């Protein structure tokens, strides 16, 4: 069992504003005391937080949330997100929405326009490839010149193809080819003993485990921004809607993967903070250790609060995520320009 601070995601400069509250240790019980949530470990260690300072409660693994705590969250309008120990989204508890249906209908109509879908999907994929290229350029400065130029040239070519793709299947093909090339470079950058051969959700190495896990956390971050912007997460443009999955969130995640997600994984693995021994094989399942999950969340939260120059001044990545959702709303409802985040 770790220290109580593992349940406290805030730093001093964050006090006074809402942030997600993560609980990651198995057998923890999240209860209620007045208007506070209290996380109690199996050894009796406790940590509490005022419900007014929580933007959402995310519980990961074998965590119990009492009925009283759930009622407090519903009363406060705070979502409760359940993730498996591998980062798979199990469900989300939110108050009943009382939002007008007209924006949903307009978003649906926009998603049924093939020209509009291709227009915005090209932007999503082109921004993703641009940011992948930026990451490769920064990370391969000590590579042989010929190898570095070849990787950048390939991604440049795929970026051009994405911008001119004639239909969504062709665009998705370009996206897949770019991802394969990008992760081929990533494989060469990571330590050999980490066991990473390719990007695949079903692989049991520590790199794929971290990517899967942090993807789930990033997904919930963007989903909150989508809800705040008044958009329906099930109505998408690049990804095919399927059984109520938040496919619009998947659309918006694309440009952030190499900006927010991959650097966290690289830093943890390349600095040997997380390694092959952090994969637990319990009951025939492979999952990240509790220690590595905690480190991943801490590093990801730190990344979100980092200030960057986006061309219009300095903003945190958290602020840019919200700006992205608002920009998409303008594109959907007002025919405005959608401006993706392009790494600089």
3D architecture notes:
There is one protein chain. The protein is an alpha/beta fold and 344 residues long. It has two domains: 4-93, Ribosomal Protein L15, Chain: K, domain 2, CATH 3.100.10.20; 102-334, Four Helix Bundle (Hemerythrin (Met), subunit A) (Up-down Bundle), CATH 1.20.120.920. The protein is built from ten helices and twelve strands. The strands form four sheets. The protein has a four-stranded mixed sheet. Strands 4-3-2-6 form a four-stranded mixed sheet. Strands 9-10 form a two-stranded antiparallel sheet. Strand 11 and strand 12 form a beta hairpin. The protein is globular, with a radius of gyration of 20 Å.
Biggest β-sheet, characterized?
Answer: 4 strands, mixed
**In the residues, how many domains can be counted?**
2
Number of helices: 10
Following the backbone from N to C, one meets helices and strands in this order, namely: EEEEEEHEEHHHHHHHEEHEEH
Q: What is the level 1 CATH name of the largest domain?
A: Mainly Alpha
Q: How many runs of DSSP E, i.e. beta strands? A: 12
In the CATH hierarchy, what is the architecture of the largest domain at level 2? Up-down Bundle
Low-confidence stretches: 1-16
Mean pLDDT level? 89
Structural class label: alpha/beta
The CATH homology group name of the largest domain: CRISPR-associated endonuclease Cas1, C-terminal domain
Strand content: 15-25%
Overall body shape: globular
Percent helix, as a range, is 40-55%
The CATH topology of the largest domain is given as: Four Helix Bundle (Hemerythrin (Met), subunit A)
Radius of gyration equals: 20 Å
State the separation between the terminal residues, measured CA to CA.
Answer: 41 Å
Strand order of the largest sheet: 1-5-7-8
């Amino acid at each position: 069992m770790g220290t109580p601070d593992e349940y406290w995601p805030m730093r001093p400069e964050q006090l006074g504003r809402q942030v997600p509250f993560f609980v990651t240790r198995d057998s923890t019980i999240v209860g209620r005391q007045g208007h506070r949530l209290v996380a109690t470990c199996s050894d009796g260690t406790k940590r509490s937080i005022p419900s007014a300072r929580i933007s959402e409660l995310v519980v990961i693994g074998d965590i119990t949330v009492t009925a009283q705590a759930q009622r407090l969250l519903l009363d406060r309008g705070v979502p409760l997100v359940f993730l498996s120990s591998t980062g798979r989204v199990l469900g989300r508890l939110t108050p009943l929405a009382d939002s007008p249906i007209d924006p949903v209908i307009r978003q649906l109509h926009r998603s049924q326009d093939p020209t509009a879908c291709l227009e915005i999907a090209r932007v999503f994929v082109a921004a993703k490839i641009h940011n992948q290229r930026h990451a490769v350029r920064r990370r391969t400065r000590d590579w042989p010149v010929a190898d570095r130029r070849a990787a950048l040239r390939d991604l440049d070519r795929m970026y051009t193809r994405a911008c001119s793709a004639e239909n969504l299947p062709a665009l998705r093909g370009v996206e897949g080819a770019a991802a394969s090339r990008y992760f081929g470079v990533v494989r060469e950058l990571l330590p050999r003993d980490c066991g990473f051969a390719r990007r695949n959700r079903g692989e049991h190495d520590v790199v794929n485990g971290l990517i899967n896990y942090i993807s789930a956390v990033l997904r919930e971050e963007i989903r909150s921004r989508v809800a705040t912007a008044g958009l329906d997460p099930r109505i998408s443009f690049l990804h095919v809607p399927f059984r109520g999955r938040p496919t619009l969130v998947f659309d918006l995640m694309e440009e952030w993967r190499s900006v927010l997600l991959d650097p966290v994984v690289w830093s943890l693995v390349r600095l040997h903070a997380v390694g092959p021994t952090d994969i637990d094989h319990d009951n025939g399942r492979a999952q990240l250790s509790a220690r590595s999950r905690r480190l991943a969340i801490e590093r990801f939260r730190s990344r979100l609060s980092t200030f960057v120059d986006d061309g219009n001044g300095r903003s945190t990545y958290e602020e840019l995520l919200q700006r992205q959702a608002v920009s998409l709303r303008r594109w959907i409802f007002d025919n405005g320009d959608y401006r993706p985040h392009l790494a600089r």
